Amino acid sequence: MKEEILEKVLNSENLKKFGIVDWGVTSDPRPITWKYYFDWVNKGLNGILKYLEGERRDKREDIRNYFPEFESAIVFQFSYAKKKFELDKFYESEKSNGLKIASYVLGFDGVDYHFKLRDALDSIGEQLRELDPALQFKLSLDTQPILERDLAYRAGLGWFGKNSMFISKKEGSFFILGSLLLSKNYSLAEKEPETDHCGQCTRCADACPTDAIDLESRTLISNKCISTYTIELFKDLGEAPEGMENSNGEIFGCDICQEVCPWNKRLLRVGKVDLNETLISERELQIRSFFLERPILEVLSDLKSLSNRGFQRLFKSTPIERTGRVGLLKNIRFFSGKR
Length: 339
Ligand code: B12
Ligand code: SF4
Ligand code: SF4
Prior knowledge:
By secondary structure, the chain is an alpha+beta fold. It folds into two domains: 2-81 and 113-182, no CATH class; 203-335, no CATH class. It is built from 16 helices and ten strands. The strands form four sheets. Strands 1-2-7-4 form a four-stranded antiparallel sheet, with helices on both faces. A two-stranded parallel sheet has the order 3-10. 40% of the residues are buried. It binds cobalamin and iron/sulfur cluster (2 copies). The site of one iron/sulfur cluster has 12 residues, from α9 and α12.
C-alpha cells in the first residue's frame, strides 16, 4: 500500500497538477505548541477574532476532537510565490494606482483558495480511497479547528518565523497549507521538526508598519495587524491600527512582513520562480482592473454606487467577497487623499 500511494498519488507529477510544491506526514494528533496558542488566546491577543476562543480554542488541543478516527495527516504546501513576484513587478509599474491586495488573493486564479484547494484535496483523498476503499478522510484548510502551522511543523516542513509565518527552507512562506486527515497510518516516512532559521534577523518586525509583531512571544497582536483590519472587519466602523498610514496601500490583507524576509527573497535569487511565462486569469484580471489600475476616486465612486448584492455578484467566489463592499470601502477610503 505504502509503495502504491507514493507511486500513484504522492508522486511529484501528480501533485504538481494541483499546484503542490512539497508535502510531509505526521501521525501526531497533538500540537507541540498548544501551550503557546492557549496563552495567546487567554491574553486576548486574538482581539476581534472571536472564533479562536472558547470551545473552538479547546478543540485545537487534539485533532481527534475534530476527527476521532485520526491516525495520520498528509500536509501539503500550495505555493503562490510566482504570483507574488509577478504582482510586485506590476506594483512598481506605471499601471499601478498605489493600492495593494495580498498576493494569495490572486495566487489561485483570483478564486477563493477555500474552494479551489478544497477540490484539489478532495481529489487527492479520492485517489487514496481508490487504493484503499476503507479509508475515511477529512480536510483541514484554514477554517477547521486545527492549528495548521503546528501540523506542518510536526510534518517537518519548516519552522515558525518571527513574523509568525510558517517558513520552509525550500519554498519561503508564500504558500497556503492544506491537509488530508486520514483514518489510516500508511507508515510513510515522517521527518523531524525543522530547526529555527531566523537567527538574529528581525527584518519582519522592523518592517511592520503597525508594530503588530511581538518578537518576544513570536506571535501577532491581531488587532494591530493590517490583515485583521482589512479582511476581518466587515463594517464601516472601527479605528485603523495606529501606523497603517505608513503601510504601502494595503486594502486587503498584508504581505509586508513576508516581502522583507530573506527566505522569500532567496526564491528569486536562486531562480526558484520563473517570471517569464505568466498567466492572468479572467477572475484575476477583473479584480486587478477594478481595484488596482484606476484612479482611487473612481474605484471609490464605483464601489459606492454598487449595491451589496451587485458587489457579491461581481466578486462571487473570490476572496474579497468575504469582506464585502462596505468593508472594502472602509479600507480604500483610508488611502484616498493619501496617495
Ligand atoms: C487567525 C488567522 C489569522 C489572523 C492571526 C494570524 C496569526 N499570526 O496568528 C490574521 C487575520 C491576522 C491572519 C493573517 C494572515 N494569515 Co492567517 N490564519 C489564521 C488561522 C485561521 C489561525 C491562526 C492561529 O491560530 N493564530 C494564533 C497563533 C498563536 O497560532 P499560529 O499562527 O498557528 O502560530 C503557531 C506558532 O506561532 C507557535 N508559536 C507561538 N508562539 C511561539 C513561540 C515559540 C518560541 C515557538 C517556537 C512557536 C510559537 O504556536 C502557534 C500555535 O501552533 C490560520 C489557519 C489555521 N487553522 O491554523 C490562518 C493562516 C495562519 N493564515 C495564513 C495566511 C496566508 C495569512 C496571511 C499571509 C494573509 C495575508 N496576506 O494577509 C496573513 C499573515 C499574517 C502573519 N504574519 O501571520 C496561512 C499561513 C501559511 C503560512 N505559510 O504560515 C494559514 C496557515 C492559512 C492556511 N491554511 O494556509 N491570519
Ligand atoms: S501582516 Fe502586515 S500588519 Fe500584519 S504583522 Fe505582517 S507586516 Fe505587520
Ligand atoms: S524576516 Fe527574518 S526574523 Fe522575520 S521571519 Fe524572516 S528570517 Fe525570520
